Every structure is written in structure tokens, then in C-alpha cells.
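I hope you will forgive my troubling you with a question about protein structure. Could you please explain, in whatever detail you think fit, how the C-alpha cells follow from the sequence? Thank you for your consideration; the sequence and its C-alpha cells are set out here.
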Amino acid sequence: MSPATPPSLLPLLLLLLLLPSAPSAGEDLAAVVYSTCSGEKYNSNSPYKLNLDSLLSSLSAAAGFSLYSKFVSADSPSATPISGLFQCTGDLSIPDCSSCVRDAVLRLPSLCSSATAASLQLRGCFLRYGKGAFFGLPDTNLRYKTCSTGGNSGGGDFLAAREAAFAAVSAAPVTGSSYRVATAGPVQAGAQCTGDLSLRDCDGCVGAAASQVKQSCGGAASGEAYLGTCYIWYSGGGAVPYNPGRGKEESSYDNKLDESNKPQVFLGDGNSRKIEANYNYPII
């Protein structure tokens, strides 16, 4: 197809599987993704410091029982209450979550020394604290994003599969969980929000993160974006290696869709069922 020819819209049924994805062997769950620290500082002997120490201790203890928890610390009545939460990746075990949160608490003094508010995202968990109440408030400000240097040529099969996977993780699963994983063709995607967000706000945050990735990563084989209260990632294991000199007309797939060989659509929620749905995406 000539690059000047408008892309045609063809119905494409993709296999969507909402499946748990265990961390890869040897993955460093304590690796720092990003940190943000307020410019305002507290004194080391202040009531604020006492409240913060109490809050972080409560969060560390709670990570031994749950993948998400939130607290408000007001042990010292003369200090401003401090809100805090942690959120572990939804596929972590409780011991791994507990270890990750402990690592985050231990790293905060060096990364955000005496900051009255801070956020720390590790590969396996997220930790945030600050003055007043921020629970339930979506934050779609970009914190971090990255794209692989290799990838697909930007052609239809890969981009349509990524779009379908993003659509799946941008909508609340039937389980109501904020942790979402989907597979469409060669592309796997995952997303998660902090547990204090409503499902509606989580959907909106993940959708905003998906837009960041699509704008920045083009046809890269993998990418991720972290916003204030959510993140999204994708990886195309079957993607064609990126070749910047390759034109769209030389794409490695056929623009024609074999109507007799369409994969069926499934949403896996423990009881997979057939969903009659068409995803109309451009096949370039």
C-alpha cells in the first residue's frame, strides 16, 4: 500500500486475556523508578517529624498484611496531620511487598531528606506522604516515562494489538481491582492505580498514561509511563525489530484480514466467556 493511501478501517477481533503476570526472575523490585520531594523542610526535632515517623512505621507494618494501605498520622496534636499510603504491584506476594515497602521507607531519608511531602516509586511498590488529605484525588501529572530503542515499524498489526491491550487495561475489570493486565496478539500491557482512587478516576488516569506512551513511543517494542496516581506499561514480544529506513509499504504483515480465521475475544476473569465485540482499528 502506498504511504499516500489513506488507511482502511477493518474489523479486527483480538484475543484479550486479563491474566496475572508474575515478576520476572531476578527483577529488582527495589530499583528506583522516580522520586519527588517537596521543597519545604521540617526540623529534625519537630512534632511533624514525630508524626511522620509514626506514619512510616504504620505503613511498614501494614505491608506485612496487605498490598495497599493508607493512614493519617496525628500523634502530635500540635503538628499538621500527615497522610500516607503505599501500593504494591498487584502480582507481588505479601513478603515481597513488605520487603519493598521497607526498602522505600529506608531510602526516603537520603532521597528526600526532611521533605514535608514526598513520593517514591520503586519497581515493586509506591510510597507517598504529605500534609493534609490527598486520598481519592487523581494526579495525572507525568512523573516518568521511557520507550525502548527497538520496536515495530509502526504498522497496523502491532499498533492495533497495543491499542486493544491499552483499551482493556483502561477499563475497570470485573474484579474491581486497580491492577490490570491484558494480552492482545503479540502485545502484553499492564496498569495499576493507587488503591484510594475510585474505579472511574482510575480508568481516567490509566487512559491518560496510555496517551503519554502512545505519543512518545510510537512503534517502539516496549514502553511505560508513570503518572502521580497510576502507571501503564506494554511489551511486544512478537514485535518486528525497528528499522528506521523501512517504509510502511514494507510492513511484515498482510493488510488483508482473513475473515475465516479471526481469533475470538475473551475477557479472563476466572470464568472466561466469549464477548461479541469488534475493535475497528486502522490496518496501515
In short: The first strand starts at residue 8 and ends at 12. Residues 199-217 form the longest helix (19 residues). The chain has two domains: 32-131, 140-283. Residues 1-26, 238-284 have pLDDT under 50 and may be disordered.
